[in-house]
Amino acid sequence: IRRAGRRSPGQRRNLQIRVTMSISGTIGVISGINECVNLFQWARSSISSLHSRWSGKQEQNLQDEVLHLQSGLQCLSDTLPAMYNLIDRAEWRSHKHCVAELLPKFSDAVYDAEDILDEFRWYEQKVTVEGIASQSAFIDFFNCVIQGSFNKVKDIQKRLENLSNLLEKMGLGEATPRFDKSVRPETSSFPIETIMFGRDQELTQVIELLVVREGDSTTKAHSKGKRECRTINSSKRTLATINHVCNEQENGLAVLPIVGIGGVGKTTMAQHIYQQVKPHFKKTIWLSVSDDFDVKRLTKEALQSISGEESTGQLDSLQHALHKTVCQKKLLIVLDDLWDDALKENGQSWKRFCAPLKNVRKGSIMLVTTRSQKVADGVRTMKTLKLNGLKDDVFWNFFKLCMFGSERFSNDHELEQIGRSILPKLKGSPLAAKTLGRLLRMNRHTTYWNNVLESELWELRQQEDDILPALRLSYMYLPFYLKRCFSLCGVYPKDHEFEKDYLAEIWVAEGFVEPQGDIPIQDIASQYFEDLVSRSFFQKVHGAYVIHDLLHDMVQMVSKNDCFILKNVNEFQKIPKNVRHLSVLSNPKFDYSKLLSLCKHEKLRTLICNMPLEDKVVAPVMDHWCTELGRMRVIICASTTGLPGSVCNLKHLRYLEISRASPLKSLPSTFCCLYNLQILYIGECKIESLPSDFDKLISLRRIELCGFRYYLEYQLNCDALEAEQKKRYLHGL
To answer: What sequence ranges are listed for the domain NB-ARC (predicted)?
Structure first.
């Protein structure tokens, strides 16, 4: 805050006290001011209306205090989008130590900015709801932000400015983010792995399919718009039909995608196919695409791959040259490592690239490797070949080769048994086997191997080309809003079954969902979920959505500073200082003192407590949490004896769930101060009454209690009588 002249700390504190008392007294004596959403407008009006109580200079000082605070908050709000963009860019270089050191600190400052802006909005809502009765709203916020000579807003601004300058000096504010070549090296058609484990059947049948396509029967079927069907066994021996669908108006070239998560062996499969079928094609091209789908670059490289000479010129001349080279030739082209930008411009980039390839000879084919089912669906003319993890017996032989240098035997049976225990962690991933095999091969002591066995995969130090850094590429490629949503999943344990609507509500409550016109925000969040499913971050298993174990290890790695899962007593000391999202798994050894210690993590936003809090010993911990953890936006509790009056401290709270039957029979009157609350799920609790001011919960959209459900967004289309009955039910409570 700007003040005339330099003052000592004592003088500044005294001035701060006088200014605070002046503003407090001013607002306190105003009785006829109209309801006003903007706190600053209210404060300025209050000061101006009583200008006769002090000199012009004093009034100006007061007005300056208000204006500078308002300006600081507006500056934070305006700066946030640029800060999000910088975080996004920094994550692309988070494999570099200097960036990895700064990124958590910068993210923490951004979180703090979000929290203080969100707190201001709560005070604005207080004015909206209570009007004249909330005369102290501005002074409460003022005292919260400015404490003596310390100004929270200015402190956050300085941190953001300092850290953003440091990050931008590292070149993060310049070009479009791309995968670092050290993380994602260029591939070629020559296999690094001369032997493929566990893919013989798929490899043989794909090769047969490609070779047989040059026969007369295939050509005739092609000309009639019908396609050959071949059955290929996946690694789980389920039948997957590769079916060439008629799509000649798009492309005369058949496109077969190979899809799977990072490290499963897609490139190795494509390399072996390429080398074995190459003699059957007149022209062959291998392109390493990665995250830069530049049509001109790829066309140049395609020409160079065929001619061996570097090509130059405009796109038109390059495409004419490529068309002339492959026209009526039997072509095999491989596009390795295709990402979502292949579908940019609403698919026009992909069509532009394929345009010169339309008049190739019948039987020509394009192989595409990708991690994304969405990409595969966007480019395929044949049903996708999905690669899953290797089967246990084959995978064990491969893992032994990685650990001991031989798949046949090892000299240490004790180490071999530990290796067998580690195997399930790897989920059949060849790259995961190489990663752990390298770590284990470096140290042949049983103590070290047991430590690896007991550790989570994400806790182990890995090189840039190991499994989790490889999987992290999929995360980095997400839009920033999807990164935030998926990283939150690091607070859930492995094998957790996700429900789309439930997770969408959590994302909305956390503030991760960006409004889009008049579309209900819940629908936008649901679309986020579907987008992550299409990108293979969630997979459907037996009707439920789960995250692949290796992807779960990856999300815990990228969110290690923000998310934590408490499983055992000895893990309380491992919780990151500024953790934002925490889940507490049920454990009888988690006593009152341990649960109370969570209060020191005052920046916590999400608390998922799977422990019942009904026992008299641990029940009081809820009161301490509500008192000390004032930034919480989401609380999910298994059960509790009741909600304390201190729940009113949770100004940011948007989602509250008590998931099991509990002795809770009523809500405290202070509950009605939760102006941000959107979701209230206490359906298993026998609530006998609601506070009289329940209608002050102006943000409430969904309620489930006592078997009763009320979803505000769905009431617009429901029967009028039904809606009225639900309102009467709530009124009766």
So the answer is: 243-404
